[in-house]
Amino acid sequence: MGYAHEYAAAILQRGRVPMPPADFVPNWTDSPRKTKFYPGTDIVPLPDGGCPAEATLDRGLAEVPDEGLPFDLDLLSGMLRDSYGLVGRRLGVQANTDLSALPSYPLANWSRGTASGGGLYPVSVYWVSGPGGPLPPGVHHYSTRHHAMRRLLTGDVSGEVRAALGEDAPGVDTDQYLVLGIKYWQNAFKYNSFSFHAVSMDVGTLVGTWRMWARARGLGIEPVLWFDEERLARLLGVRTEEEGVFAVAPLNWRGAAPSSRTTSPVAGAVRHRDVERSRTVLTFDAVQRMQAATARHATRRPAPGELAPAAALPADPSRPHVPLPDARPLETDVRSALRRRRSSFGRFDAQRPVTGDQLAACLAAATTGARLGGDTGDAQLAKLYAFVNHVEGLHPGSYEYDPDTRGLRLVREGRPGEFLQENYFLSNYNLEQAGAVLVPTVRTTAVLDAVGDRGYRLVNATVGAVSQAVYTAASALELGCGVALGFDNISYIEELGLEETGEAPLLIMMIGNERPAPADFRYEIA
Q: Model confidence over 289-304: pLDDT tens digits?
């Protein structure tokens, strides 16, 4: 049994047994930047990227294979801007603890299409391009603040990525790759030992956004999570103790020359280094050990069907079935839904209940969003539960979602508001005012038993993708939404009767209508 089992148990218990260091206080005056900084590198501006009206969220969440259409620079640019680029400034009156700082420009809240734990955005996006791309071959880092690429290396090193992925990985017949790294200090300065849990979900929110965005346009994103991590870290010029390499997304590229897809690896490494803002950078034993544990057998890709024993359990047929209306269509284009996305932070209003078709749409989106594709297998790992507070046509209570019937199974009758609020650690949400609180669960221990410690990254990426799907669906439905990790996981296990199933509730997702006419300010920059 690897260290990931121990870490997973500590995460579930942390509401009752604090994770060390229990007395940690973030030094906000010495915090890192919300991006990597490479001074002295050339910058390549990216085009804006169009958004066709037919690229609806319904199409982005459809459970159909992509049409095999290729990417080009305009499409890649649009996907990056809509997912991780800065698109606007938010200054609304809400219940989060950072409200008083938001009017200050250095502490301004810049919105992005993709959610991130604590709003810290620690994912680094690298573009490794071969001769089939529109720029001279090399390695670029996506500068979110400029919506541009910073050139870190010139030369075709795409063969290094192909070699790191292995011959059996999806997408090895291209020379264009997006590589996702996690700079731990960018999150750990606030969340310390909890950081690995949070950042591995951030990978899922970004990959989930890319998959929705691409599928809506007939494109495909099939991420690879198993590969030679140390080899890619050497290529990017990073130390895995400081920045883990979590995923690679091969891109089917328009006009790529066949010869460029079969070249032998050319050794190379980025020499430019990120310049850290913090004067003091700390490390945390749990984060270091999880990085080492999840990278140890990084090339042992799961065989087909290997994750089947860890799949989500079917809904309990002995529980009373409660039908839901058909899901409301999500006809908003993906770009608009992503740019309208925001966290509600205490603005829910119970006087206007959620409708049944809105709840059904959010549950269906979460189910589809849970599939990451690529080398993650066909098993559906995530299962959904719903605490219903204020939903038209439904009695308050806790329910199990049945994706086969697209209905609910009653777990426990009665208003859950008091339970929800008692087991929430923070003061930025009144959970009783939300229309419903959705809870994704994964059988984490079963996943780790099936594929080893690296499966922890898959578990959390899956849950992150679920949360992003719900966020985006709620935006399209004009519902408020919020996602939180600060709750007593053990109490949820007991309340939902999950002691024998091995299901772990890993975050909560609140949906509901917000108070009318809020004090709000939005300045769009994209």
A: 999 999 999 999 999 9
| Angle separating helix axes 356-369 and 455-476, nearest 10 degrees | 150
Please give the helix or strand (H or E) that residue 274 lies within, else none. none
Which tops the pLDDT comparison, 320 or 262?
320
Q: Which own/partner contact pairs does 7-12 have at CB distance under 8 Å and 24+ positions apart?
A: 7/196, 7/197, 7/286, 7/289, 7/290, 7/293, 7/456, 8/444, 8/445, 8/448, 8/456, 8/504, 10/286, 11/194, 11/197, 11/489, 11/506, 12/489, 12/490, 12/493, 12/504
Look at 88-97, 145-154, 167-176, 307-316 and tell me which has the smallest mean pLDDT: 88-97
Check pLDDT > 60 for residue 271: yes
Average pLDDT rounded to a whole number, residues 98-104:
74
**CB-based burial of residue 382 (10 Å sphere; 0-12 exposed, 13-18 middle, 19+ buried)?**
buried
Asked if 253 and 72 count as a contact pair (C-beta separation under 8 A), the reply is yes
- Would you say 343 and 117 are in contact if contact means Cβ atoms under 8 Å apart? no
Residue 359 parent element (H or E): helix 356-369
Query: What DSSP assignment string belongs to 291-341?
Result: HHHHHTTTT-PPPTTTTGGGSPPPP-TTSPEE--PPPPP--SBHHHHHHH-
- Mean predicted confidence (pLDDT) in 418-431: 94
> What is the pLDDT averaged over residues 195-206?
98
Count of positions (residues) in the chain: 526
Secondary structure (3-state) at 165: helix
Question: Rounded to whole angstroms, how far apart are CA atoms 151 and 178?
Answer: 14
pLDDT reading at 9 higher than 70: yes
Distance CA 288, CA 290 (A): 6
Q: Looking at residue 265, what DSSP letter applies?
A: P
Mean pLDDT score, 260-288: 88
Distance between CA atoms of residues 366 and 463, nearest Å: 9
Ranges 52-66, 195-209, 328-342, 441-455: which has the least confidence: 52-66
- Long-range contacts (CB closer than 8 Å, 24 or more residues apart) made by 402-406: 402/314, 402/315, 402/321, 403/315, 403/363, 403/364, 403/367, 404/314, 404/315, 405/315, 405/321, 405/323, 406/324, 406/327, 406/360, 406/363, 406/364
